[in-house]
Amino acid sequence: MTQIKFVDLSAQYLAYKEEINQQVLDVLASIQYIGGPQLEGLEKELQEFCGCQHAIGCSNGTDSLLLALLAAGIKPQDEVITTSFTFVSTVEMICLIGAIPVFIDIDPENCLMDSKLLEGAITPKTKAIIPVSLFGQVSAMDEINAVAQQHSLVVIEDAAQSFGARQSTTKGEKYSCDLSTYACTSFYPAKGLGCYGDGGAVFTDNDDDAKKLRSLLNHGQSDRYEYVNIGINGRLDDIQAAILRVKLRHYKDEIARRCQLADNYTRALENTPTLTPLKLLEGNKSVYSQYSLYAPLSKRDDYRNTLQEQGIPTGVYYPKPLHQHKVFAEFAYRGRDKNSKTQPVPLPHTEAAASRIFSLPVHPFLSDEQQDKIIEVLNRLK
Ligand SMILES: Cc1ncc(COP(=O)(O)O)c(C=O)c1O
User: Fold this and answer.
1) What residue spans define the domains of the chain?
2) CATH architecture of structural domain 9-104+113-246
3) Which residue among 85, 216, 260, 365 has its CA within the 20 to 30 Å range from the CA of 70?
4) How many CB atoms lie within 10 A of CB 380?
5) What's the CA-to-centroid distance between 146 and ligand 1, angstroms?
6) Distance linking the first and last C-alpha atoms of the chain
């Protein structure tokens, strides 16, 4: 049996090698490296894939969040409600523009924003909500959008881990990135849909917002050397776009394989009292960017070591919630009771998840034989 990898980018490259090489060589020969036809083609295909009116390629997932926050007009001291159980970028970009992240807890069953806590976190300064579609499944968007609408808030889906995921909503089945005012995704190589460098995209249905986003990611220009916004260099290049177009052709098959592997794990772990896989929110179809599960308290390291000894790599997303990091510590005290440094925002499920969660290999090139071995070792964990 070949070595089990947590993410297998080399197997993926070998599978699509001819197509990818050809696409890259074509871009090299075309000398259209920035803002060329590959980017235009990719944007159109991303729109068609998820149903959103505008898909705008950009430099990475972090910048896509910054661009959405800027396009939404979020200003210093505005409050943005999000979760602390996420990759740093979500909160980092809120702070970078001087706004204040207000944390609410997650639902421990799925690690997504607990939408029931939203109302209690809203103040006159609240301007936006950033739900994070973690581990490949979309947050409870009907509930989140309803609260946002009632309070005139912008919703920015952090879809860095969920492009391709689906949810049945009051408007029928919809794709991640087509469920909010703005959505942001990442094409980091290890993501479900990854390029061979950095890349990302922002999504919106609104024509004016799309125009503004395109300006913001190109130094705030409206036209060449006409500056109308303070922006950034946040462009996606054509080599990355060309690679993504190849991978997008295979993406639905890859999602199907990930789902099959996830179902196998879930079935195999049904009678394993020591391990508790996360659950799907009702109506969700995940892309399983991670297959995450809980170990009993203080057993996670032992379990991971046992798995590693058997040649099975695992990951921990995330070992420490963001509000427990020094740089974000002040925000642990904001939210419900402002000005009080004595009452931290209660985030018990976030903190418990960080101490128990870990993730198993679920990439589309994992063989049945490899997964059988992983399941056999999991079933022996005590
Ligand atoms: C939830 C989340 N948000 C944002 C990002 C940032 O994406 P990028 O690494 O492309 O900047 C990531 C990437 O890991 C992520 O997982």
Assistant:
1) 9-104+113-246, 250-380
2) 3-Layer(aba) Sandwich (3.40)
3) 85
4) 10
5) 26
6) 25
**Is-contact 257 364, C-beta < 8 A?**
yes
How many Å lie between the centroid of ligand 1 and the Cα of residue 187? 9
C-alpha to C-alpha distances, 296 to 48, 260, 300, nearest whole angstrom: 43, 26, 7
Ligand 1 pocket, residue 321 CB under 6 Å: no
Cβ of residue 204 lying under 6 Å from some atom of ligand 1: no
Please answer whether residues 245 and 230 qualify as being in contact, where contact means their C-beta atoms are separated by less than 8 angstroms. Answer: no
- The two three-digit tokens of residue 313, written as one number: 């790599």
What distance lies between CA 121 and its chain's CA centroid? 23
Residues 245 and 250: their CA atoms lie apart, in Å, by 9
pLDDT tens, position by position, 12-69: 999 999 999 999 999 999 999 999 999 999 999 999 999 999 999 999 999 999 999 9
Maximal C-alpha separation, the chain: 65
Reported for 226-229, long-range contacts at CB under 8 A and 24+ positions apart, including other chains, are 229/70
Question: pLDDT by residue (tens digit) across 196-253?
Answer: 999 999 999 999 999 999 999 999 999 999 999 999 999 999 999 999 999 999 999 9
3-state secondary structure of 232: coil
For the Cβ of 86 lying below 6 angstroms from any atom of ligand 1, the answer is yes
**Does the 250-380 domain belong in CATH 3.90.1150.10?**
yes
